Amino acid sequence: MSHIQLHQLCKTYDQSTFAVEDATVSIEKGEFFILVGPSGCGKSTILRMIAGLEGISAGELYIDNQRANHLLPSQRNLSMVFQNYALYPHLTVEENILFGLKVKKVKKLERKKRCEEAAKLLGLTNYLKRKPRELSGGQRQRVALARAVVSDAPMCLMDEPLSNLDAKLRGHMRTEIRQLQRKLGITMIYVTHDQVEAMTMGDRIMVLKDGKVQQVGTPLEIYNKPKNLFVATFIGAPPMNISKATVDRMNSQLLLKNDLIIPISNEEVRQIKSDTVYIGIRPEQISRGKGESRDVDFSVQLSNVEVLGNETLLSFYIGEDIWKAKWLGQWPLDLNRQTNISFSIEKLYLFDGDTEKTVISPAWNETVLKEVLSVESR
Ligand SMILES: Nc1ncnc2c1ncn2[C@@H]1O[C@H](COP(=O)(O)OP(=O)(O)O)[C@@H](O)[C@H]1O
Ligand SMILES: [Mg+2]
Fold first, then answer.
1. Which of 343, 348, 304 lies closest to 322, judged by CA?
2. Is 146 a domain residue?
3. Ligand 1 test: best mutation among 9, 10, 13, most atoms within 8 Å of CB?
4. Domain span at residue 248?
5. 224, 250, 265 — which closes off a domain?
6. What is the pLDDT of residue 257?
7. Residues enclosing ligand 1, CB less than 6 A?
8. Is pLDDT of 2 > 70?
């Protein structure tokens, strides 16, 4: 059963431009659903329309199969966690956690019980009498989570809840939030601009740009089968390497600025409708040394080498574009030296030079992967 449905949801603040345009998706019960995209793409607007904090300009919102466009926030049965935690500085942790329940007139004994449970779940038992200013950033974040937990709402909306935390704590809280969501079985809609959070936390991801939905899918679907150039470069770090190439139909090949030639099949040429294409290759698909038959070989001058301990990032120019290769292990190579690299044509993405839609992407089959995993786990 779908829990939350958006049907061509639109929002305009100024009656002339769309902050959100025609967003359509069904979110399942118990799903961890992520809205991701660059700043200003409309993520918070969608979340706030679902919460009832922002009016809906056009389209329909359904919660539990009931039209919810005009329900008050309090009638929507959801909890919300904001980026700035929205804690009351003059109230104790306990009072902050219970604030919503008091407003809802939940009985005192029940309040106490729920608070104790939530505090235990989030490791706040010893901090209940403190004020927010006496807590670390991570602890404050947990108070905000505890407030969502005690509400007992079957769905929770979170707007960039981790962006004020340092990198290590963020990693830790990612796991904690995901575990909490599984344990409580709640439906989560989670907003982030961080593609790592999207990839690691979500059951499914919606990628947005300029108020428009670019793609909805599982993290691996989005990573392996991006629908267009924007999704391909937004998801993945370092991002997919991209260069523009001219299509030489006579000789079935793609020509890049630095005289690099990529041979492709006649069938592939036929699929390309434009005169130019963007070629894309992920950094981890670029290998050291000369390749084998259907591989593209080239020699590049390294412009930067970043040894990260367990992997090495190498930068070099392809025409005017900086590309990166990611190799496992430690490769403290000299800058400016010529290095042989290669990639397999099978791993190449091609995007239409005009529409930027994906024309060709490497073979990837999720069902095969699932079968392999299920055989292995037997
Ligand atoms: N209250 C508002 N009044 C006018 N414009 C707004 C308001 N809130 C957001 N916007 C505009 O709507 C667009 C989407 O904003 P928002 O949903 O906050 O994006 P995100 O959360 O993805 O960063 C932006 O162009 C932003 O400037
Ligand atoms: Mg926002």
1. 304
2. yes
3. 13
4. 240-370
5. 224
6. 83
7. 13, 19, 37, 39-45
8. no
